[in-house]
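INTERNAL AUDIT FORM
Audit reference: QA-55
Scope: verify that the stored structure record matches its stored sequence.
Auditor: D.O.
Record contents follow.
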Amino acid sequence: QVQLVESGGGLVQAGGSLRLSCAASGRSFSRDAMGWFRQAPGKEREFVAAISWSGGSTYYASSVKGRFTISRDNAKNTEYLQMNSLKPEDSAVYHCAFYPGPYSGNTRMYEYMNECHCWGQGTQVTVSS
């Protein structure tokens, strides 16, 4: 059974940094695209970043580009999200995600995660002004 466990969230002041981790288990994810989504209270879950199976290609939402960096360690079945220059509007519950095979867009990744009921609990990030 696939399990995704996010960690690393917390309370940070605006301008600060956090590093999120997602430990995946249940099978190897080394050939899967992986990503991050976030959901703020009263808002839809939105795409943050994604990375190809090899790590050679990365994709970012325009709101985080230049501030966030996604990476992965296939040997550890783990992905990361380094978040710098955090803003209050980055406050949300952050969820990791995956899509089997090559990255096919954030919408398809989101749909797949819903179809397989694979979302984890997420990790809360709160940025104070």
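Auditor finding: record pair retrieved intact. The helical segments are 106-116.
Action required: none
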